[in-house]
Write a structure and sequence with these properties.
With 306 residues, the protein is mainly α. Among the domains are: 96 residues, Arc Repressor Mutant, subunit A (Orthogonal Bundle), CATH 1.10.10; 109 residues, no CATH class. 56% of the residues lie in helices and 3% in strands. The chain is built from 12 helices and 3 strands. A 3-stranded antiparallel beta sheet has the order 1-3-2. A hairpin with a 3-residue loop joins β2 and β3. α1 packs across α3 and α2 crosses α3. The termini are far apart.
């Protein structure tokens, strides 16, 4: 690296209010912008660099961070008034009198510095047409200086309290409180009893009869909605379908009624459940997918009395 390519900076830069407002990512983006300005313009006073120098993908590669962090860093640096982002160029705002002192300027000190520059530009010439003497202006400016001194002292106290709290947190090992927000896809959706009922009934019917009924058809969902409203469950649906399949499957005339329109019609379904409770249904055969713990007779016995 050539010797004239060094970018010098204040050793107290990290404690400056603008840097602290920008955060880690904003600071890294700002320092990178300073280095790019130095490479492009050397020791000149030019403050602008092309916007392409701070493209998120380029920053991510150069600063070894994610593109999301790079994009956030540009926004934070702009919010802290370290840079100004335009469509085609980036203006660096850090080259001003605020970085020259032995310590970062407070808001009150910046106001006073700005007024002193304005006073120097006026050169002590009285403003015409205001009817205010120089003595009056000096008195008003002296009052403002007193207020600024008071504000400056208050700012210093607040900054010292913040630094003390940070030191206490570091020494105690207390972690920062970070709220955890779950993305919508990470939150498990609540169970839908209507769809659960429809899927259980249709799946069992297709297994018993080899049919290909759809659980999301409007007719099935309408019937399921009415039955769930009457406190029937998916277990009730499976028990009814198995019982009626065992009773009607071998009868060609009745086998055609092994369909959702008949089995899930609310008036029919209620009668089927009553038959199961009364023990009037014939023994049922488990579906091919049933296991030892999925015994159909057990499912029938578990149908609650309403």
């Amino acid at each position: 690296m050539a010797h004239d390519d060094w970018a010098k900076m204040d050793a107290r830069l990290d404690s400056h209010p603008k840097i602290r407002k920008a955060g880690r990512n904003g600071r890294e983006v700002f320092l990178f912008a300073l280095r790019r300005r130095r490479l492009r313009h050397g020791g000149s006073a030019e403050r602008r660099i092309p916007a392409s120098d701070l493209e998120p993908w380029y920053l991510a590669d150069q600063l070894m961070m994610s593109e999301a962090d790079a994009e956030e860093g540009v926004k934070r640096a702009a919010m802290a008034r370290l840079i100004s982002v335009d469509a085609e160029e980036i203006s660096i705002l850090g080259f001003d009198d605020e970085w020259d002192g032995t310590a970062p300027m407070t808001a009150a000190q910046r106001k006073r510095s700005q007024r002193e520059r304005e006073r120097a530009r006026r050169g002590g010439v009285e403003s015409a047409g205001h009817g205010e003497s120089r003595d009056d202006r000096d008195s008003h400016e002296a009052s403002r200086d007193v207020r600024d001194d008071r504000d400056c002292h208050a700012d210093q106290i607040r900054e010292e309290e913040i630094r003390r709290e940070e030191r206490e947190d570091l020494s105690s090992g207390k972690p920062d409180a970070v709220p955890v927000l779950l993305a919508p896809e990470m939150v498990e959706p609540a169970a839908d009893p209507v769809r659960e009922f429809a899927q259980a009934a249709v799946a069992e019917l297709n297994t018993q009869t080899g049919s290909r009924y759809q659980a999301d058809s409007e007719m099935v969902l309408k019937s399921a909605r009415a039955l769930v409203a009457r406190r029937y469950t998916a277990s009730d649906a499976v028990a009814v379908v198995r019982a009626k399949s065992a009773a009607w499957r071998s009868d060609p005339k009745m086998a055609e009624y092994l369909r959702p329109a008949t089995l899930l019609r609310p008036s029919n379904f209620a009668a089927y459940v009553e038959d199961l409770r009364a023990g009037n249904a014939p023994p049922v055969r488990a579906s091919p997918r049933s296991t030892a713990t999925d015994d159909p007779q057990t499912a029938i016995r578990k149908i609650p009395t309403r």
